[in-house]
# Entry
Amino acid sequence: MKIYYALPLFLGFSSFVLAQKTDKITANLEAKKEVYSSIAQQIWGFAEMGYQEEKSTALLQETLRNEDFKITKGVAGIPTAFIAEYGEGLPVIAILGEYDALPGLSQEAVAEKKSVGKAAGHACGHHLFGTASTAAAIEVKNWLKTNKKKGTIRFYGCPAEEGGSGKVYLVREGLFKDVDIALHWHPSDANDANPGSALANKSAKFRFHGIASHAGMAPEKGRSALDGVEAMNMMVNMMREHIPSDTRIHYVITNGGKAPNVVPDFAEVYYYVRHGNRKMVIDIFDRIAKAAEGAALGTGTKMEYELIGGTHELLPNITLQKMMYSNLVKVGGVTYTEKEKEFGNQIIKSLGIENGSVDKAAVIQPYKTLDPSFGSTDVGDVSFAVPTAGMGSATWVPGTPAHSWQAVAAGGTDIANKGMMVAAKTIALTAIDLFLNPDQIVKAKTELEEKRGKDFKYIPLLGDRKPALDYRK
# Structure
């Protein structure tokens, strides 16, 4: 019997079978909540940055290996990337998992800003991302095995999402060519499964080389590399008036010299360019590179740049998003204990939010046709290669922005673990729905082909460079 999944109500026997399946899958995952919470909190403690996630990837690989998954390590030339696979034949359903932390956001799991003295922190919740996706993959494996169903469940261990474009190398390597559907999620301050967007992104480190000299006694003999960086920044900031207003350009000076009385012979600035269309990103990036060349010419320095990352915009798939949203509604949101409410209210106060409420974590956000986002993700490249759907769950206190100490703090509590299990249940149910409904896979593929166009050819924005394994060093 075919069960057709859509937003309208299910009727008759199909409804009964669906309810039984949903209850069993969610109960199985809830029974292992403490196991998966322990894994997530270990990774939260590791707090390893992009391409350095040695302990994190090892823990997830071990967890999947113990559940009879075949592990392929070091894929696409990335030591911390891996693929875990169970089953055989079609369809091939992929679940994406991340596990990298962000630099400079060390934080204890308390409702006040308090560093633990580490180099990084999980301010984007990727310790939860990788673990929930692992949990979902294992539950789908158990369902395939118990019900003797044909098909393949595949987990992709994806490092360095934060600026390292890890998934782009996996796509470029052709590792998604035989995949039918890809599913993912992301930690958030709310529960939603809307067809969201994300901006294309291109990033590079611009390095200026000058001539060192005593800044007081012989400045005329020096050529300041820092002058080159500052001149470049000045021109780029003037350029903001003459680019589309929805463009995002960010930079940090990663090296500006060592002492004021030494003319710096080396300086470096790290740039991101974002826009909703990758072609616009390429154009603006090229203009920034020209500004860097001009800055070097004007300051008597030399300039070179290293392309660090580049991602496509996210291409939503409405067919899949409706299925995922339907399952998220069935699973429900996150309910806080009284102690968690106290923690949450302190976080809300620290954010300066008026009329904030921790009860919003229990709410499933209404379905929207398109949920805009000004962030970027390397899932974008996956979404152009294979039909892709994603969701967010309330792992942070409502109102918490990503990349904040408040996100790190909540990520070390059971609030985050609860939200993580919402994601695990929703993704597992959606994957199983796809195994049961091959017609929905066909529909999702047709939608992808229509959206990306007949003449689409995948060209990675980072070109043919090798993985930037040292970009966080």
Notes: The first strand starts at residue 70 and ends at 73. Residues 1-11 have pLDDT under 50 and may be disordered. The chain has two domains: 12-198+318-452, 200-311.
